[in-house]
Design a protein that fits this description.
This protein is an alpha/beta fold. Helix content is 46%, strand content 12%. It folds into 2 domains: 60-403, Methylmalonyl-CoA mutase (TIM Barrel, Alpha-Beta Barrel), CATH 3.20.20; 482-603, Cobalamin-binding domain (Rossmann fold). The protein has helices at residues 2-10, 17-27, 33-37, 53-56, 94-101, 121-124, 144-158, 174-179, 187-197, 212-217, 221-241, 246-250, 263-282, 312-327, 346-362, 376-398, 402-407, 410-427, 470-481, 496-511, 526-535, 547-561, 575-580, 592-603, and strands at 39-40, 46-47, 82-88, 108-112, 134-138, 166-170, 204-210, 253-259, 296-300, 331-333, 487-492, 516-518, 540-544, 566-570, 584-586. Helix 23 links the parallel strand 14 (566-570) and strand 15 (584-586). Helix 14 packs across helix 15 (346-362). The model has no long low-confidence stretch (mean pLDDT 95).
């Protein structure tokens, strides 16, 4: 069979990149190749439409194997990961809940301890086999030492010092991102005490890098990567300077990172992260390369979760979890689809668990290590993201390191600027949120979902707290809470193809603000259409036709309407029409959010 295929390939001459591009330019019929075929990423590099073997033949990364330094292909020879679910410890049911979910496919429990409240860790972990289940504890830095003492005692009692896997999230850097204030205690002294306490337990990691905070705030992928590396290096530098062996520091660091919706880029990010972290740790001369392995817990991002059409959150988190699994992370947390607007219920938590179980039991993603390895596209993305992340890492180090740059407010400012840029893209539909700024459910109501959401912007000096959908949700909620819901009438006339396309575009446009949409099959005259719109008590009339026909229809319709409703043309702006007094034009270049904000101000009563 192989010989037959080889003969088949011999019948076709190799195609050079130049020949491929020449053919593509012919098919583009004069359109700019660079604009149509090359994607400019948020990370600052271009992605070509096609990659070939020659593009990666000089990459050193393709020569390594899974489990080998620099671990770009994974730190293990197995791709099995921990399926993790987090529990808020706010009542006495946390232990019972943990025991329940450990019998439902979960093998890694995360406990979020309440701040300022002593928790009996023995009671929390009662009947949990620490030889079999991984445990991660998230607590306030001031409480971490006491938690560590209790946890180590329980592990020793169970004889699980060699088999236990887990972490305590000791993270004094988090305070600055959340409150704009430096940690008040001596973090080096506390970290050294933590390391001394956990010495008996081989795989208990206590030095946290919570880059997921940056991801949830809207950071670009290269920013999360670069700052995470600098964050981890800050631990290495501070503690080795304080006399702690590099081997001990490196093997106690755990990275908590987010997963955005850019599927292949996220696969590349985790591969690049392992490779770069291995190189950083290597410079501290640890006892063995095993210390250079990056341990990563990946969590689906909350930044792109939406309140409206919330089941779409399942699609987002599923592809995110898939990219992390294929990238070879150590554990994954899937945020329940309803987390954006309420405390997740049993149904949403069960679905979140099953999303990972499906990836294992149905798709068998745990059976193949680094399946993306050797892919021309993914290998090139890995190197491109690594280069941008490394540039940022070096910039932070040149300025004095992570702690210095963080306390200067530069990291917060940079991430917030990225979030602002993404908000702007969403406003203009250059970044799409299905069900929010594109193809919204016309008739959906919030049904009280947003009652407990704080939509206010964050104070100055702290990380962005708003989700990407926030501003569109505010528009829609304002419409819901108004005494009158605006009606938008599609005045469709003329060219059938154009009027249907523009009516659909306009319907989606105004439905993003929750307006009532009235579509139509078409009218013979604009006067007939306007009369029908006014009979329906329309607040907005959108003229939908072709550009050539607008020369006739637009002036006639605007004159006949005579200000009895807002008039909009679905199409490009036209100076001649503006001189007539026509103000509103909607098209693919429109700022949807700004336009709808203006209409809300006019129409909501």
């Amino acid at each position: 069979m192989a010989e037959k295929f080889e003969k088949l390939f011999d019948q076709f001459a190799p195609v050079t990149p130049e020949e491929w591009r020449a053919k593509a330019e012919v098919d583009l019929k004069g359109a700019d190749y660079s604009k149509k075929m090359i994607w400019r990423t948020n990370e600052g590099f271009n992605v070509e439409p096609i990659y070939r073997g020659v593009d990666i033949e000089n990459l050193k990364t393709i020569e390594s194997l899974p489990g080998e330094f620099p671990f770009v292909r994974g730190t293990r020879v197995s791709n099995d990961w921990y399926v993790r679910q987090d529990i808020d410890v706010d009542d006495e049911d946390a232990n019972a809940k943990a025991l329940e979910i450990l019998n439902k496919g979960i093998n890694n429990v995360g406990f979020n301890l309440p701040h300022g409240k002593n928790v009996d860790i023995a009671a929390l972990l009662d009947k949990i086999d620490l030889n079999a289940a991984a445990v991660d504890i998230n607590c306030c830095p001031k409480e971490a030492i006491d938690v560590a003492k209790q946890l180590v005692a329980i592990i020793e009692k169970q004889g699980a010092q060699e088999t236990f896997v887990g972490s305590i999230n000791f993270d004094p850097f988090r305070r600055y991102f959340k409150h704009g204030e430096p940690f008040p205690g001596d973090m080096v002294a506390m970290a050294k005490e933590m390391l001394n306490i956990v010495k008996p337990v081989k795989n208990l990691r206590v030095l946290s890098v919570d880059a997921i905070m940056l991801n949830n705030a809207g950071a670009f992928i290269y920013q999360e990567l670069g700052y995470a590396l600098a964050w981890g290096n800050e631990w290495m530098a501070m503690l080795t300077e304080a006399g702690v062996p590099a081997q001990e520091v490196a093997t106690r660091i755990k990275f908590n990172m987010g997963i955005s919706t850019v599927y292949f880029m996220e696969i590349a990010k985790f591969r690049a992260a392992r490779m770069l972290w291995a190189q950083i740790v290597k410079q501290y001369n640890p006892e063995c390369d095993c210390a250079c392995k990056m341990v990563v817990n990946a969590a689906t991002t909350e930044f792109t979760q939406t309140v409206f059409d919330s089941y779409v959150n399942l699609l987002r988190s599923q592809t995110q979890a898939m990219s992390a699994a294929l990238a070879g992370v150590d554990s994954i947390v899937v945020a329940p689809f309803d987390k954006a607007y309420q405390t997740p219920n049993d149904f949403s938590e069960r679905i979140a668990r099953n999303q990972q179980i499906l990836l294992k039991e149905e798709s068998h993603l745990d059976k193949v290590v680094d399946p993306a390895g050797g892919s021309y596209y993914v290998e090139m993305l890995t190197m491109s993201i690594a280069q941008e992340g490394w540039k940022l890492f070096l910039d932070v180090e040149d300025k004095g390191g992570f702690k210095t740059v963080q306390e200067a407010g530069e990291i917060t400012a940079a991430v917030n600027a990225s979030a602002k840029a993404r908000f702007d893209k969403v406003a203009k539909r250059r970044e799409q949120l299905l069900g929010t700024n594109q193809f919204p459910n016309f008739t959906e109501k919030s049904e009280g979902k947003a009652a407990n959401i704080n939509y206010e912007a964050q104070p100055d000096g702290v990380l962005n707290r708003q989700r990407l959908a926030t501003h569109f949700e505010q528009l829609r909620l304002a419409t819901e809470n108004a005494a009158h819901t605006p009606k938008v009438f599609m005045l469709t006339i003329g060219n059938l193809t154009m009027r249907l396309a523009r009516a659909q575009f306009s319907s989606n446009f105004f439905a993003c603000s929750g307006y009532e949409i009235i579509d139509n099959n078409g009218f013979k005259t604009v006067e007939e259409g306007i009369d029908a719109a006014l009979e329906k008590k329309a607040d907005v009339i959108v003229l939908c036709s072709s550009d050539p026909e607008y020369d006739e229809y637009a002036p006639a319709a605007f004159k006949y309407l005579d200000g009895r409703a807002e008039f909009v043309i679905a199409g490009p702006e036209n100076d001649a029409f503006k001189e007539l007094g026509i103000k509103y034009f909607i098209n693919v270049k429109s700022n949807v959010q700004a336009t709808l904000t203006e209409f809300n101000a006019k129409l909501l009563k």
